[in-house]
Write a structure and sequence with these properties.
478 residues, seven-stranded mixed beta sheet, 22 strands, alpha/beta
């Protein structure tokens, strides 16, 4: 194991708080931010890298000693925010993990699913000859179980609690996915610093979750920038476009393939497709959720209805409802998933992963991309270097499981379904903080620079730091 490269104050020493980004710096995935305050070390998120060069990045040694991390504050349960926590535990982290109750529940199914995929990949390599030694899984189910035992069952959102004497923690509804939170840190170190971490800020007006709650005032804001340089298409227009693509495809006898994130996006799509089914019956086409993770997540959604907006909560009291109607089915077993590729006639298949980096969507794409009657509907962010991005960028041929697949299907990108707020939403979030310094993370370089320029024009001291570069904390307001 390579040596850890981050130095710092000795245990128990108290100095000015410090911040460094060790993921989602100059890129979108791998969220991981080290806070050093009052002689303690905390992580804001510890997520997977996805897309280009992700295997190397996820396997690289941590630039800090996991055993010297005192706690993790987790913003939400997407894999790029929580995916390396079991590895952190495997390598010595023994502190508490602070998260909302819904985030804890969702992280359990996400991390167990990731462990299973890692195990299956390991077995796949082990069975093949002539490919060299199999890569050891990043973590195993036992590491996930140990990590889950370190979660602190916090309230959902609300007033301050202490994570350490003199360090307060509050969760603020980020409106991104179920249980997602922005994190307010109040550091009582004499001057009294207030830092707020956005996590991922939601796209207002979506089905199910409430709109983001404006953050409180802070000295330092750490803000995501996924769409910092552009605005989304109107949600109503996006829903109408999805309806047109789905109806035209099924009426022509084709398959609609929707790569979808299991958390939130799949459930939101079911709300939209339920409305379309009630109005049109979709030419009799079945709608299939082909993702064990999405099935488990949907069950968790039903346990946390108190986090829905009023309209969504009311709709689930009806029969039929968006999670239970005649055209809808769920496939959990692999053999049932494989049988979907032999279906005669039209169908709408929602499968993970949302970025086409793994999961059952790959089998469906390999089978149906050569068919010009197929429509692949992209409804979420696609990381640079991933299969989804290559499809969006117009690739005529792709490789899936080592085999070439011609792309004759239509590729329809519908941006209004993003779970991330756009530039206007992020800008409003920063303005609400009135922060004296803003550190921008979780964005590709063009988006980071575009958003930084916007904030500088608004009068903010906005910075974009690279991996491991310190972010100076501004002096607190008197």
């Amino acid at each position: 194991m390579a040596r850890h490269v981050v130095g710092g104050a000795g245990r128990g020493e108290v100095g000015a708080p410090r911040l460094r980004h060790f993921g989602a710096a100059g890129g979108v995935t791998g969220s991981c931010h080290l806070v050093e305050a009052r002689g303690m070390r905390f992580l804001l998120d510890c997520g997977y890298f996805q897309g280009r060069d992700s295997v190397r990045k996820n396997r690289a040694p941590f630039p800090f000693d996991p055993a010297q991390i005192d706690a993790v504050m987790l913003s939400h349960a997407h894999l790029d925010h929580c995916g390396r926590i079991p590895r952190l535990v495997k390598e010595g982290f023994r502190g508490p993990i602070h998260a909302t109750r819904a985030t804890k529940d969702l992280a359990e199914v996400v991390l167990l699913d990731a462990a299973k995929i890692a195990h299956d990949d390991f077995e796949h390599w082990r069975r093949r000859s002539g490919r060299g030694p199999a890569p050891v899984p990043l973590f195993e189910e036992k590491d996930v179980e140990r990590a889950l035992g370190q979660f602190i069952d916090n309230r959902d959102y609300g007033p301050r609690g202490e994570v350490h004497p003199g360090i307060g923690l509050s969760f603020i509804d980020a409106g991104h996915i179920l249980g997602s939170a922005s994190i307010l840190l109040e550091i009582d170190d004499g001057p009294g610093h207030r830092w707020v971490f956005s996590g991922d800020i939601g796209n207002p007006g979506k089905p199910i979750v409430r709109d983001p709650t404006p953050p409180p005032a802070a000295d330092l804001a750490i803000c995501e920038s996924t769409y910092g340089g552009r605005d989304h298409r109107d949600m109503r227009a996006s829903i109408a476009e999805l309806g047109e693509v789905v109806l035209s495809t099924v009426r022509a006898g084709g398959k609609v393939l929707i790569p979808s994130f299991a958390l939130e996006r799949t459930q939101e799509l079911l709300f939209v497709l339920f409305d379309l089914w009630e109005k049109t019956k979709l030419a009799g086409a079945p709608i299939v959720v082909d993702s064990p993770l999405a099935i488990d997540a949907t069950e968790i959604f039903l346990r946390h209805r108190h986090l829905y907006d009023e309209a969504a909560a009311e709709r689930l009291t009806s029969d039929p409802n968006p999670f239970r109607f005649p055209a809808l089915s769920f496939t959990r077993k692999p053999q049932d998933s494989k049988r979907l590729n032999t279906l005669d006639g039209p169908a709408v298949i929602i499968a993970g992963s949302g970025m086409c980096t793994g999961g059952r969507i790959l089998h469906h794409l390999a089978h149906h991309l050569p068919d010009p009657r197929t429509a692949v509907v992209i409804v979420g962010y696609q990381a640079d270097g991933g299969l989804g991005r290559r499809l969006v960028d117009g690739a005529k041929e792709v490789r899936i499981y080592g085999r070439r697949a011609r792309v004759r299907a239509s590729i329809d990108t519908i941006g209004g379904f993003s779970a991330h707020g756009d530039q206007d939403d992020l800008r409003a979030w920063v303005h609400a903080t009135a922060a004296r310094r803003v550190s921008l993370v979780h964005g590709e370089p063009a988006m980071l620079e575009a958003f930084r320029g916007t904030l500088v024009n608004d009068g903010f001291d906005a910075v974009v730091k690279g991996i491991g570069e310190p972010v100076d904390s501004p002096e607190p307001r008197s």
